[in-house]
Amino acid sequence: MPELPEVETIKLGLSPVIIGKSFTQIWQRRKNIRIDFPPNFSSILENTTIIDVTRRAKYLLIHLDNNKILVMHFGMSGKIFMGKQDSFLHVHASFLLNDNTEIHYYDPRRFGLITIINMDEIDSHKLFINLGIEPLTDYFNANYLLKKFKNKNTNIKQALMDNNIAVGVGNIYAAESLFKANISPLRPASSITLLELEKLCEAIKIILQNAINAGGSSIRDYQNIDGDLGYFQNMHQVYNRYGQRCNICDTIIDKVTQGGRTTFYCKTCQV
Ligand SMILES: [Zn+2]
């Protein structure tokens, strides 16, 4: 599933290619993905110029010179391909730019979405209004989490993954960050001290940034901006390593189900 670093990687790969260019032709190949395409989708976009590309949570935001934003979410399996395609199977929309660059949105499982919002709806639109803060900003710090976790009796792993508090700390990154900060995923969120939260915030920022850097270095070699962070998977310390030995203390990595998701952790390193 594309997580925050994958979407950031797509943003970084796409920005230099599309900013300053115009959409000359749009192909919409379905009525809907997870939600309907907006009415007049193609005509709203055609002949507009792309002025910026940003990211909010796992949404890619393509800012246009007509005060609209083209919003893309990649769901479980969404990707962006560039260049000529041999097949349009699962390609739900394609975009031609004025320099003949082709951008294709591909999503076989169709949990993603493409829509258009007005620029001033970026905080108030229903897709964005309940989103918590971005973990790679200064707002995400130990004091903020202490306040948010004060009365939270849920475990720290699920609290970290709560999108109303902070966005983009998905299953992999929550597990890896808790390992790096030596915090057991089983502890109630309210029991984590300010000092531990400082360590945890630092761990989250480092791990997300490492994943972005890994993706960033891999996309330079390929024409497809598919957010593939295969390289980062080799850097996991606990995620998907059940039954293997901890790289720090040699204990066998354990797993537990929390909120329907599997958490991997080291019983010795994480207390
Ligand atoms: Zn260990």
Total number of helical segments? 7
Strand order of the largest sheet: 1-6-7-5
Counting DSSP E segments of at least 2 residues, the number of strands comes to 10
Structural class: alpha+beta
Main sheet properties: 4 strands, antiparallel
Summed over residues and divided by their number, the pLDDT gives a mean of 92
Strand percentage: 15-25%
Helical proportion, percent range: 25-40%
Low-confidence stretches: 217-224
Order of helices and strands: HEHEEEEEEEHHHHHEE
Radius of gyration: 20 Å
User: Which ligands, by name, code or SMILES, are bound?
Assistant: zinc ion
Distance between the termini: 29 Å
Molecular shape:
elongated
Outline of the structure:
With 271 residues, the chain is α+β, with helices and mostly antiparallel strands.
Description:
27% of the residues lie in helices and 21% in strands. It is α+β, with helices and mostly antiparallel strands. A four-stranded antiparallel sheet has the order 1-6-7-5. A hairpin with a 4-residue loop joins strand 6 (91-97) and strand 7 (102-106). Helix 1 (4-18) crosses helix 6 and helix 3 packs across helix 6 (194-219). The longest helix has 26 residues, at 194-219. It is elongated, with a radius of gyration of 20 Å. It starts with a helix and ends in a 6-residue tail after the last strand. Bound molecules: zinc ion. The site of zinc ion (ZN) has 7 residues, from loops.
